[in-house]
Amino acid sequence: MLGRLNHVGVATPSIAQSAERYRLLFGDAAVGEAFDLPAQGVRVCFVDVPNTQVELIEPLGADSPIHGFLAKNPAGGQHHLCYEVPDIHAAKAWFEARGMRVLGEPRIGAHGTPIFFVHPKDMGGVLTEIMESPRGEH
Ligand SMILES: CC[C@@H](C(=O)O)C(=O)SCCNC(=O)CCNC(=O)[C@H](O)C(C)(C)COP(=O)(O)OP(=O)(O)OC[C@H]1O[C@@H](n2cnc3c(N)ncnc32)[C@H](O)[C@@H]1OP(=O)(O)O
Ligand SMILES: [Co+2]
């Protein structure tokens, strides 16, 4: 059912500082432009690597879903893994049928396709994002 690893989410208190770190550490890092996603409560910046992406996320205000994570981890850190699936509604039904807590209804994510999250306590401590493939495949 699971397809490719689409991205690794990394929470940070400052995308500007994290982006600069990636540029300094990896001289040829393809660091994109940051943009706001108010519907998700985060500011986002993608770093492209050959087989996946690092998704830097910074909270947009105290209501952000990553506010609590950064309160516990003020310097930031690895926040979630995102896998692609061919059909978001079939994937949601799959997890729910197995007793996993799906966090809300599918909504449009940073790649323009529907996403949902599965609670980390049901996934061995890993917050898991499920994303409908932008290529209509997995
Ligand atoms: C850029 C847009 C989009 C994309 O297209 O890619 C994104 O990626 S948006 C990313 C941000 N959005 C989300 O994370 C939405 C889903 N998240 C949530 O609903 C909540 O963050 C949460 C997972 C339910 C956690 O809620 P919160 O209130 O912050 O924390 P708690 O303290 O209640 O946490 C309970 C429990 O879970 C542990 N936890 C929390 N976050 C994580 C995490 N990222 N990874 C692993 N574990 C996590 C937390 O430590 C608590 O455990 P205990 O202390 O043992 O109770
Ligand atoms: Co993500």
From TrEMBL:
InterPro entries: Glyas_Bleomycin-R_OHBP_Dase, MeMalonyl-CoA_epimerase, MMCE/EMCE_epimerase, VOC_core. It comes from Sphingomonas molluscorum. Its EC number is 5.1.99.1. GO terms for molecular function: methylmalonyl-CoA epimerase activity. Residues 4-133 form the VOC domain. Keywords: Isomerase, Metal-binding. The keyword Flavoprotein does not apply. The keyword NAD does not apply. It holds the Pfam family Glyoxalase_4. This is Methylmalonyl-CoA epimerase.
